[in-house]
Amino acid sequence: MERDVLIIGGGPAGLSAALVLSRARRAVTVVDAGEPRNATAEHMHGFFTRDGMPPQALLETGRTEVRGYGAEIIDGRVEHAAKDEEGAGFVVTLDDGTRLRSRQVLVTTGVTDVLPDVPGLRERWGREVQMCPYCHGWEVRDKRIVVLATSPKSLHQATLLSQWSPDVTLVTGEAPEGEEAARLDVRGIRVVEGEARRVVVEDDRVTGIELADGSVLGCDAVFLAPEFVPKAGPATDLGCAFGDDGFVEADETGRTSVPGVWAAGNVVNPMGQVIIAASAGAMAGAMINAELIEAEIASKLAA
């Protein structure tokens, strides 16, 4: 198969790019490992016309749309990506040994959210344990919210959440001082010094956080800032440059440091919500098509 573009990752960014490219009459293949970042969330929010839609329903709808324009979707995992030594372009090898070739590659493999080693957090992740106020703040409005201070972003996270609830508590190993303390006080945020020992669950609902001293801080929702680890194996294989934050460097169009290799979505921007990732994929798809057209013009002129 003469393939124009191979998209590694079938989430919002990858499927959005596939839609743009397949509508541009490009031969497109999407390889998807089936590990969406928001798999444990019951609903997604902030995507107008799709607010409250289950994440899996969005992906199923997207797959149907791109297949309707002739794009191919393969369920599988890319084990290795490289420049094609047998010709121009690239070749990727899947976990079943299949080798796929294409003129251009778009990496939309996403990110892994690494949570603190606190029993119960992972089990409730995507339910009462969340990270994004804009994605899930409305659902816990006026409820008891605990923010675990897991990163420098945690104070900012707590101040944001005070917009949705007057009952926000920051659990931290060391209480903020000076201006930071004053900012929390202005927003009515309580500070508790301590370390989370476990998540307390009753009747399949989070009811509190047990601290290291044995006390239990009652709550209905827990927010934290996880460690973001990009799933950037294909970009690493292809020699793409990475930023100091460990994420793939790409310009606003998705262009990486390697000609013909593009990246979009959370593998570039871990803070991007679904609608932002989809937008980045659409932009990358349009620019890839434009670059292919320029290459085709140059080839004809040189003949």
From TrEMBL:
<keyword id="KW-0560">Oxidoreductase</keyword>
<protein>
    <submittedName>
        <fullName>NAD(P)/FAD-dependent oxidoreductase</fullName>
    </submittedName>
</protein>
<dbReference type="Pfam" id="PF07992">
    <property type="entry name" value="Pyr_redox_2"/>
</dbReference>
<keyword id="KW-0285">Flavoprotein</keyword>
<dbReference type="InterPro" id="IPR036188">
    <property type="entry name" value="FAD/NAD-bd_sf"/>
</dbReference>
<feature type="domain" description="FAD/NAD(P)-binding">
    <location>
        <begin position="4"/>
        <end position="281"/>
    </location>
</feature>
<dbReference type="InterPro" id="IPR050097">
    <property type="entry name" value="Ferredoxin-NADP_redctase_2"/>
</dbReference>
<dbReference type="InterPro" id="IPR023753">
    <property type="entry name" value="FAD/NAD-binding_dom"/>
</dbReference>
